[in-house]
Amino acid sequence: MKFTVKQIATLLGGEVAGNDALTITGLAKIEEGKPGDISFLSNLKYESHLYTTQVSAVIVDRSFEPKKPVSPALIFVENSYSAFTQLLEEYHKQLIFARVGIEQPSYIGDGSQVGEQIYRGAFSYIGRNCQIGESVKIYPHAYIGNNVRIGDNTIIHPGVRILDNCIIGQYCVIHPNAVIGSEGFGFAPQSDGTYKTIPQLGNVILEDYVNIGSGTTVDCATMGSTIIRRGAKLDNLIQIGHNVEIGKNTVIAAQTGISGSTKLGDNCVIAGQVGFAGHLSIANGTKVGAQSGVGKSIDEEGTAINSSPAFGLKESMRSLAVFRRLPELDQRITKLEKKNEK
Question: Would you say residue 331 lies in a domain?
């Protein structure tokens, strides 16, 4: 990254106090930066560092008034934290999308087409009849099966497996060692006690702006599609079963498991280590506390649940409060029983 303070201020919609011609080449914490870096100040707990920092520029809120003279240029914006996040995103894009070209050895099958500004890392594999969009980045050791479609500006990190017939939207990010489109867990019990494998013939669809964390597995559908809707964010080490649907802008924390054919609505927030039974319907805006076990559908939008088995958050908290007092309550009951016996 190499920008002037003025260019950064323009990007962020801010105003500069100080030397706007300074060149910025990196980002840093306000207490650790060096000349050429830019930082931000949103928490006044760190204001003292503003007067001693070595960075060349600091992003601050418009309402901020320095108590002492400062050496770095100041960029005044509406929200310094959000502005610095925007700058981090821009910096990250430059790092990621700077990679262009084809490293060897790599393989692409017959009938596959790739867009401009693509990056294919060493030992990456693209199967037959795939369509890869513009500015897609496929890192080393990634595997893309036959008949896969990947939209523009998507990033496929090292070790990712995208199996046959899957569809990946634009601006998606799939982190290392995630598996998209593996066979669902489908076995039919037989009369002799054995199990017969049920062929999984469907695919997985990731809509635009979906993030899939490292080590997460999204199983293909038995028939039809397992669907992760636009803007959904999945953390590391999540299991998504066959024919599951995840709603728009739903976020799911690590080690959650969702059984087959369950449908989560839009804008749900699922904490870590939550388990969902199969064939459930979860309403839009549902919030589920960590380590909850969800065994029945949620019909009312905006519901917050907790515990295992999961039930209403307020009721769960009250129950937990009573549970913690059980030893005390047991002693009181024992005393009352002895008193009554006398």
Answer: no
* CB-CB contact of 96 with 102 (8 Å): no
Of 256 and 315, the structure prediction assigns the larger pLDDT to 256
Q: Do 120 and 36 share a structural domain?
A: no
Structure confidence at residue 342 as a pLDDT band (50, 70, 90)? low
Pair 170, 306 in one domain: yes
Please name every residue paired with 35 in a beta bridge, in sequence order, or none if there are none: none
Cα-only R_g, the chain: 26
**Cβ proximity of 204 and 242 under 8 Å:** no
45 belongs to a structural domain: yes
User: Is pLDDT above 80 for 215?
Assistant: yes
Residue 323 lies in a domain: no
**Main-chain dihedrals φ then ψ at residue 35, nearest 5 degrees:** -55, 135
> pTM of the full predicted structure?
0.81
Do 268 and 212 fall into the same domain?
yes
Using the 3D structure, point to which of 62, 82, 97 is the last residue of a domain: 97
User: Domain for residue 333, yes or no?
Assistant: no
Choice between 66 and 90, residue whose per-residue pLDDT is larger: 66
168 and 289, same structural domain? Answer: yes
- Over range 141-152, report the average pLDDT: 98
Does 242 participate in catalysis according to the annotation? yes
Name the catalytic one among 49, 157, 242, 279.
Answer: 242
Q: In terms of Cα–Cα distance, which of 281, 267, 274, 261 is closest to 305? A: 274
Say if CB 7 and CB 21 are below 8 A apart: no
Q: Looking at per-residue confidence, does 178 or 90 come out higher?
A: 178
Helix (H) and strand (E) counts in the chain: 5, 40
